[in-house]
Design a protein that fits this description.
single chain, 253 residues, alpha/beta, Rossmann fold, 7-stranded parallel beta sheet, binds NADP nicotinamide-adenine-dinucleotide phosphate
Protein backbone atom coordinates (compact mmCIF):
# COMPACT_ATOMS: atom_id res chain seq x y z
CA UNK A 1 0.00 0.00 0.00
CA UNK A 2 1.51 3.41 -0.88
CA UNK A 3 2.35 5.80 1.90
CA UNK A 4 -0.22 8.58 1.41
CA UNK A 5 0.62 10.74 4.42
CA UNK A 6 4.14 10.88 5.80
CA UNK A 7 4.92 12.24 9.24
CA UNK A 8 7.68 14.82 9.54
CA UNK A 9 8.48 13.71 13.09
CA UNK A 10 12.15 12.74 13.42
CA UNK A 11 13.00 14.19 10.00
CA UNK A 12 15.63 16.84 9.28
CA UNK A 13 14.98 19.73 6.89
CA UNK A 14 17.51 22.23 5.54
CA UNK A 15 16.10 25.55 4.29
CA UNK A 16 18.43 27.87 2.36
CA UNK A 17 17.50 31.53 2.67
CA UNK A 18 15.81 30.30 5.82
CA UNK A 19 15.64 33.66 7.59
CA UNK A 20 14.04 35.48 4.63
CA UNK A 21 10.37 36.41 4.40
CA UNK A 22 9.21 33.15 2.82
CA UNK A 23 12.04 31.01 4.21
CA UNK A 24 11.16 31.83 7.83
CA UNK A 25 7.54 30.80 7.28
CA UNK A 26 8.70 27.53 5.72
CA UNK A 27 10.99 26.88 8.71
CA UNK A 28 8.06 27.49 11.07
CA UNK A 29 5.75 25.25 9.07
CA UNK A 30 8.22 22.35 8.97
CA UNK A 31 9.12 22.74 12.66
CA UNK A 32 5.45 22.76 13.67
CA UNK A 33 5.01 19.45 11.82
CA UNK A 34 7.82 17.88 13.86
CA UNK A 35 10.92 18.31 11.70
CA UNK A 36 14.29 19.43 13.03
CA UNK A 37 15.03 22.53 10.97
CA UNK A 38 18.42 23.81 9.81
CA UNK A 39 18.00 27.50 9.04
CA UNK A 40 20.51 28.24 6.28
CA UNK A 41 21.75 31.81 6.24
CA UNK A 42 23.80 33.96 3.90
CA UNK A 43 25.10 37.26 5.27
CA UNK A 44 23.99 37.51 8.88
CA UNK A 45 23.78 34.68 11.40
CA UNK A 46 21.86 36.66 14.06
CA UNK A 47 18.34 36.56 12.50
CA UNK A 48 18.77 32.88 11.58
CA UNK A 49 19.93 31.99 15.09
CA UNK A 50 17.02 33.94 16.62
CA UNK A 51 14.58 32.14 14.33
CA UNK A 52 16.07 28.71 15.11
CA UNK A 53 15.78 29.44 18.84
CA UNK A 54 12.12 30.49 18.44
CA UNK A 55 10.95 27.57 16.28
CA UNK A 56 8.35 25.29 17.80
CA UNK A 57 7.64 21.60 17.49
CA UNK A 58 9.66 18.75 18.94
CA UNK A 59 12.74 18.94 16.69
CA UNK A 60 16.23 20.25 17.43
CA UNK A 61 16.72 23.39 15.38
CA UNK A 62 19.89 25.26 14.48
CA UNK A 63 21.26 27.94 12.15
CA UNK A 64 24.07 27.12 9.72
CA UNK A 65 25.94 29.22 7.17
CA UNK A 66 24.71 28.22 3.68
CA UNK A 67 25.81 30.76 1.06
CA UNK A 68 24.57 29.06 -2.08
CA UNK A 69 27.11 30.61 -4.46
CA UNK A 70 29.99 29.10 -2.44
CA UNK A 71 30.16 25.35 -3.07
CA UNK A 72 32.97 24.83 -0.53
CA UNK A 73 30.80 26.47 2.14
CA UNK A 74 27.86 24.26 1.12
CA UNK A 75 30.10 21.19 1.54
CA UNK A 76 30.92 22.42 5.07
CA UNK A 77 27.21 22.94 5.72
CA UNK A 78 26.49 19.36 4.62
CA UNK A 79 29.23 18.04 6.95
CA UNK A 80 27.72 20.02 9.83
CA UNK A 81 24.28 18.55 9.10
CA UNK A 82 25.79 15.04 8.93
CA UNK A 83 27.72 15.51 12.19
CA UNK A 84 24.76 17.08 14.02
CA UNK A 85 21.87 14.95 12.79
CA UNK A 86 23.29 12.11 10.70
CA UNK A 87 20.55 12.58 8.12
CA UNK A 88 18.75 15.04 5.84
CA UNK A 89 15.23 14.30 4.61
CA UNK A 90 14.15 17.61 3.09
CA UNK A 91 16.05 20.39 1.31
CA UNK A 92 14.15 23.57 0.54
CA UNK A 93 16.01 25.80 -1.91
CA UNK A 94 14.48 29.14 -0.93
CA UNK A 95 17.52 31.44 -1.28
CA UNK A 96 17.02 33.81 -4.17
CA UNK A 97 17.93 37.26 -5.35
CA UNK A 98 16.68 39.90 -7.76
CA UNK A 99 16.40 43.64 -8.35
CA UNK A 100 13.69 45.53 -10.18
CA UNK A 101 14.69 46.49 -13.73
CA UNK A 102 12.05 47.48 -16.30
CA UNK A 103 11.98 44.79 -18.98
CA UNK A 104 12.50 47.27 -21.83
CA UNK A 105 15.65 48.75 -20.25
CA UNK A 106 18.19 46.19 -21.46
CA UNK A 107 21.19 48.37 -20.52
CA UNK A 108 20.12 48.53 -16.88
CA UNK A 109 20.25 44.74 -16.65
CA UNK A 110 24.04 44.73 -16.38
CA UNK A 111 26.27 41.65 -16.48
CA UNK A 112 27.05 41.80 -12.76
CA UNK A 113 23.36 41.61 -11.89
CA UNK A 114 22.79 38.85 -14.46
CA UNK A 115 25.64 36.75 -13.04
CA UNK A 116 24.43 37.35 -9.49
CA UNK A 117 20.87 36.23 -10.35
CA UNK A 118 21.97 33.14 -12.27
CA UNK A 119 24.60 32.01 -9.75
CA UNK A 120 22.20 32.45 -6.82
CA UNK A 121 18.88 31.32 -8.33
CA UNK A 122 20.09 28.54 -10.66
CA UNK A 123 23.59 27.35 -9.78
CA UNK A 124 22.83 27.78 -6.06
CA UNK A 125 19.95 25.28 -5.82
CA UNK A 126 21.88 22.78 -7.94
CA UNK A 127 24.97 23.18 -5.73
CA UNK A 128 22.89 22.68 -2.58
CA UNK A 129 21.40 19.46 -3.98
CA UNK A 130 24.89 18.30 -5.01
CA UNK A 131 26.26 18.96 -1.52
CA UNK A 132 23.40 17.24 0.34
CA UNK A 133 22.74 14.40 -2.09
CA UNK A 134 24.67 11.74 -0.10
CA UNK A 135 22.61 12.54 3.01
CA UNK A 136 19.32 12.84 1.11
CA UNK A 137 19.95 9.51 -0.59
CA UNK A 138 20.48 7.71 2.73
CA UNK A 139 16.82 7.79 3.77
CA UNK A 140 13.68 6.33 2.30
CA UNK A 141 11.92 9.06 0.36
CA UNK A 142 13.72 12.40 0.64
CA UNK A 143 12.44 15.58 -0.99
CA UNK A 144 13.97 18.66 -2.60
CA UNK A 145 11.66 21.67 -2.96
CA UNK A 146 12.80 24.47 -5.24
CA UNK A 147 11.06 27.77 -4.55
CA UNK A 148 10.41 29.02 -8.07
CA UNK A 149 7.96 31.69 -9.23
CA UNK A 150 5.08 32.05 -11.66
CA UNK A 151 7.50 34.46 -13.40
CA UNK A 152 9.04 31.30 -14.88
CA UNK A 153 5.99 30.75 -17.05
CA UNK A 154 4.45 34.22 -17.35
CA UNK A 155 7.72 35.98 -18.22
CA UNK A 156 6.51 38.80 -15.96
CA UNK A 157 8.56 39.60 -12.87
CA UNK A 158 11.19 41.84 -11.34
CA UNK A 159 13.42 41.66 -14.41
CA UNK A 160 13.96 39.59 -17.56
CA UNK A 161 16.78 37.51 -16.09
CA UNK A 162 14.88 36.76 -12.86
CA UNK A 163 12.07 35.24 -14.96
CA UNK A 164 14.62 33.22 -16.96
CA UNK A 165 16.34 32.04 -13.76
CA UNK A 166 13.10 30.62 -12.39
CA UNK A 167 12.35 28.91 -15.73
CA UNK A 168 15.81 27.35 -15.51
CA UNK A 169 15.07 26.27 -11.94
CA UNK A 170 11.88 24.51 -13.08
CA UNK A 171 13.93 22.73 -15.73
CA UNK A 172 16.41 21.62 -13.04
CA UNK A 173 13.46 20.30 -11.06
CA UNK A 174 12.48 18.02 -13.95
CA UNK A 175 15.99 16.80 -14.77
CA UNK A 176 16.91 16.16 -11.15
CA UNK A 177 13.60 14.43 -10.43
CA UNK A 178 14.42 11.97 -13.18
CA UNK A 179 18.07 11.62 -12.21
CA UNK A 180 17.51 11.16 -8.47
CA UNK A 181 14.40 8.94 -8.50
CA UNK A 182 13.21 6.85 -6.84
CA UNK A 183 15.00 7.82 -3.60
CA UNK A 184 14.70 11.60 -3.85
CA UNK A 185 11.66 13.48 -5.14
CA UNK A 186 12.15 16.97 -6.57
CA UNK A 187 9.38 19.57 -6.85
CA UNK A 188 9.09 23.26 -7.69
CA UNK A 189 6.67 25.42 -5.78
CA UNK A 190 5.84 28.55 -7.75
CA UNK A 191 4.38 31.45 -5.78
CA UNK A 192 2.76 34.49 -7.29
CA UNK A 193 3.41 37.77 -5.53
CA UNK A 194 3.99 37.11 -1.82
CA UNK A 195 3.53 39.79 0.82
CA UNK A 196 7.10 40.00 2.17
CA UNK A 197 9.51 42.87 2.89
CA UNK A 198 10.90 42.04 -0.57
CA UNK A 199 7.84 43.65 -2.22
CA UNK A 200 7.14 46.26 0.48
CA UNK A 201 9.19 48.88 -1.35
CA UNK A 202 7.36 48.50 -4.64
CA UNK A 203 5.22 51.15 -6.28
CA UNK A 204 1.93 50.94 -4.32
CA UNK A 205 -0.10 51.49 -7.52
CA UNK A 206 1.56 48.47 -9.14
CA UNK A 207 1.02 46.39 -6.02
CA UNK A 208 -2.68 47.38 -5.93
CA UNK A 209 -3.02 46.42 -9.59
CA UNK A 210 -1.56 42.97 -8.85
CA UNK A 211 -4.01 42.61 -5.99
CA UNK A 212 -6.94 43.61 -8.21
CA UNK A 213 -5.89 40.97 -10.74
CA UNK A 214 -5.78 38.15 -8.23
CA UNK A 215 -8.94 36.02 -8.55
CA UNK A 216 -8.68 34.96 -4.90
CA UNK A 217 -8.66 38.63 -3.86
CA UNK A 218 -5.41 38.86 -1.93
CA UNK A 219 -1.66 38.45 -2.31
CA UNK A 220 -0.08 35.26 -1.03
CA UNK A 221 1.08 35.20 2.57
CA UNK A 222 4.38 33.44 3.33
CA UNK A 223 2.31 30.92 5.32
CA UNK A 224 0.57 29.90 2.06
CA UNK A 225 3.93 28.89 0.62
CA UNK A 226 4.90 27.11 3.83
CA UNK A 227 1.64 25.14 3.71
CA UNK A 228 2.47 24.02 0.17
CA UNK A 229 5.95 22.89 1.24
CA UNK A 230 4.49 20.90 4.14
CA UNK A 231 1.94 19.34 1.77
CA UNK A 232 4.72 18.43 -0.67
CA UNK A 233 6.58 16.69 2.18
CA UNK A 234 3.73 15.02 3.97
CA UNK A 235 0.85 14.55 1.57
CA UNK A 236 1.88 14.74 -2.09
CA UNK A 237 4.18 11.77 -1.70
CA UNK A 238 3.63 10.44 -5.25
CA UNK A 239 4.53 13.73 -6.97
CA UNK A 240 7.93 14.49 -8.46
CA UNK A 241 9.35 16.58 -11.31
CA UNK A 242 6.45 18.99 -11.45
CA UNK A 243 5.65 22.60 -10.64
CA UNK A 244 3.00 23.40 -8.05
CA UNK A 245 1.57 26.90 -8.42
CA UNK A 246 0.56 28.81 -5.27
CA UNK A 247 -0.58 32.02 -6.92
CA UNK A 248 -4.24 32.68 -6.10
CA UNK A 249 -5.01 32.15 -9.79
CA UNK A 250 -3.13 35.32 -10.78
CA UNK A 251 -2.18 34.13 -14.33
CA UNK A 252 -5.90 33.65 -15.12
CA UNK A 253 -6.62 37.41 -15.32
N1 LIG B 1 8.31 37.57 -2.47
C1 LIG B 1 7.74 37.19 -3.62
O1 LIG B 1 6.79 37.82 -4.08
C2 LIG B 1 8.23 35.93 -4.32
C3 LIG B 1 7.44 35.43 -5.35
C4 LIG B 1 7.84 34.26 -6.01
C5 LIG B 1 9.02 33.66 -5.65
N2 LIG B 1 9.78 34.18 -4.64
C6 LIG B 1 11.02 33.47 -4.30
O2 LIG B 1 10.97 33.08 -2.94
C7 LIG B 1 12.29 33.00 -2.42
C8 LIG B 1 12.37 33.78 -1.12
O3 LIG B 1 12.05 35.14 -1.41
P1 LIG B 1 11.57 36.18 -0.27
O4 LIG B 1 10.44 36.94 -0.84
O5 LIG B 1 11.42 35.50 1.02
O6 LIG B 1 12.83 37.17 -0.27
P2 LIG B 1 13.83 37.57 0.91
O7 LIG B 1 13.07 37.88 2.13
O8 LIG B 1 14.71 38.61 0.29
O9 LIG B 1 14.64 36.23 1.15
C9 LIG B 1 15.66 35.81 0.30
C10 LIG B 1 16.62 35.01 1.13
O10 LIG B 1 17.64 34.48 0.27
C11 LIG B 1 18.88 34.68 0.90
N3 LIG B 1 19.95 34.74 -0.08
C12 LIG B 1 20.17 35.64 -1.06
N4 LIG B 1 21.32 35.37 -1.70
C13 LIG B 1 21.82 34.25 -1.11
C14 LIG B 1 22.99 33.48 -1.30
N5 LIG B 1 23.89 33.78 -2.25
N6 LIG B 1 23.19 32.41 -0.48
C15 LIG B 1 22.30 32.06 0.46
N7 LIG B 1 21.18 32.77 0.70
C16 LIG B 1 20.96 33.85 -0.07
C17 LIG B 1 18.74 36.00 1.63
O11 LIG B 1 19.73 36.13 2.63
P3 LIG B 1 20.50 37.55 2.79
O12 LIG B 1 19.42 38.54 3.09
O13 LIG B 1 21.46 37.32 3.90
O14 LIG B 1 21.20 37.79 1.47
C18 LIG B 1 17.32 35.86 2.19
O15 LIG B 1 17.35 35.15 3.41
C19 LIG B 1 13.22 33.50 -3.51
O16 LIG B 1 13.78 32.41 -4.19
C20 LIG B 1 12.29 34.29 -4.42
O17 LIG B 1 12.76 34.32 -5.74
C21 LIG B 1 9.41 35.31 -3.98
Amino acid sequence: MPQVCASLADTVAVVTGGAGGIGAAICRGLADEGASVVVGYHRSPAPAEALAAALGGRGRHCAVSAPVTDSAALARMARTVADTYGRCDVLVNCAGTTRFVPHHDLDALDDTLIDDILSTNVRGPFAAVRALRPLLAQGAGALVVNISSIAATTGMGSNVMYCASKAALDSLTKSLARALAPGIRVLSIAPGLVDTPFIAGLDPAWRDEQLARSPLGRLAHPADIAAAVVAACATLTFSTGTVIAVDGGRPLV
